[in-house]
Amino acid sequence: MAFSRFAKRMDQLKASEIREILKLTERPEVISFAGGLPDPELFPIRELQLIAVKVLEEHGKEALQYATTEGYRPLRDKIALRMNRTLGTAWTADNILITSGSQQGIDLAGKAFLDEGDVIFCESPSYLGAIQAFRAYGPEFVEVPTDHEGMDIVQLRELLQTTQRAKLIYVIPDFQNPTGRSWTLARRQELIKLANEFDLVIIEDNPYGELRFEGEPIPSLQSLDTEGRVLHLGTFSKTFCPGLRMGWTAADSAIIPKLVLLKQGADLQASTISQRQLDAYLETYDLGEQIVKIVEVYRKRRDTMMEALRREMPADVRFNIPSGGLFTWLELAPELNARDLLVRCLDHNVAFVPGGSFYPNGGHENTLRLNYSNMTEERIIEGIARLGKVLREYTAELQASPLSI
Ligand SMILES: Cc1ncc(COP(=O)(O)O)c(C=O)c1O
Q: Which of 103, 108, 204, 267 to mutate to test the pocket of ligand 1 (most atoms within 8 A of CB)?
């Protein structure tokens, strides 16, 4: 077999570290803060059981048949209405494309907008799955320094002024993966201004916005956009369940047909039966109530993890207190390496994702991401205690090593 015959783009791609690590953490004894998994105990299994039967009984033939690429119209109507209510947009079903998870929306946007050598700006750090999807289209990644208020807009402007082929900007303004941070309204407004000035397309990826533990929602980038340059990616993975693979892209009516063409080539359409089931669920039950339940559980887990971190971490470890979403982000002393720490932690059956993998251009090896949604409070307390112990041992060993002097 001609393994030398792969396309050039394959040289850029390497196995996702998260997936490799998840394999190691599948053992039940591992307390894993590694994945980004919702808690399966919260999946509405009984409701879906009833819905699945109902859909097959009432619309079996349609539910098992091919359907349009754009997606099931009643579902697109509901998504448009929901967005208009919660995110301040003014969409109709024609602005919504149903995708196989929001991950597919990322991929389609990359395919639609990126030529090889184009520049894509992203937060530093950013979501690994997006970096991987975009990488296949051969762009140059420019990381923009990001703090507790969002991207540093002054630096973004400077970077834009010196960049020839600026095209796309990919951001997660609400409870970001991996840091858990959100952007302020002012930063959002400034980003829109810059995008207008430099003719950029913005991808606003928003899987976590509805998982808010406290405070008021901040207007979405798409609601601030007056030029149709923001693509908003949504998903039911974190508010409902990821297994149905139900996501969507909301965009100006000039953009959606282009994405439809690409989706036709990718997979013809999202699963008809998943769309029908989701639509029937939204028709019969109140997703808002389901989200309230999820938020209550995750808020407690966030609190438990924050208390445990305050108790167990050495004083020089900095961590973010997220107001929503699934993650927090740790910065260790600069001489520490989170990959080495992970290897040690796995010996003690505790896992996380080293932060270096979230930087498209590498570096920042002293950072790490912790997920709190998929472990019970008891396991969070135990896992953070183990992490603290291993971290202290590792730090002490480094300090004792002659190389560190
Ligand atoms: C920021 C971000 N975008 C997109 C996705 C993809 O989610 P899905 O394809 O399940 O909608 C994830 C999943 O964790 C994510 O964290």
A: 103
Q: What is the pLDDT along the chain (405 residues), one digit of tens a residue?
A: 567 888 888 877 777 655 666 677 778 899 999 989 999 999 999 999 999 999 999 999 999 999 999 999 999 999 999 999 999 899 999 999 999 999 999 999 999 999 999 999 999 999 999 999 999 999 999 999 999 999 999 999 999 999 999 999 999 999 999 999 999 999 999 999 999 999 999 999 999 999 999 999 999 999 999 999 999 999 999 999 999 999 999 999 999 999 999 999 999 999 999 999 999 999 999 999 999 999 999 999 999 999 999 999 999 999 999 999 999 999 999 999 999 999 999 999 999 999 998 998 889 999 999 999 999 999 999 999 999 999 999 999 988 876 654
Instruction: Tell how far the Cα of 133 is from the centroid of ligand 1, in angstroms.
Output: 12
199, two tokens: 């003719």
How many angstroms does the Cα of residue 105 sit away from the middle of ligand 1?
A: 10
d(CA 195, CA 76): 28
162 and 59, same domain (yes or no): yes
* Torsion sign (Cα): 138, 139, 145, 151: negative
Instruction: Tell me how far apart the terminal alpha carbons of the chain are, to the nearest angstrom.
Output: 51
Separation of 321 CA from ligand 1 center, angstroms?
21
- Our mutation pick for probing the ligand 1 site, out of 170, 237, 358, 369, counting the most ligand atoms within 8 A of Cβ, is 237
Question: How many angstroms separate the CA atoms of 367 and 336, rounded?
Answer: 9
Domain carrying residue 322: 8-37+289-396
Q: Do 213 and 298 have their domain in common?
A: no
On whether both 256 and 364 belong to a single domain, the answer is no
**CB distance 235 to ligand 1 below 6 Å:** yes
**One domain, residues 211 and 315:** no
Total domains present in the chain: 2
Secondary structure percentages of the chain, helix, strand, coil, to 5: 50, 15, 35
H or E element in which residue 398 lies = helix 377-400
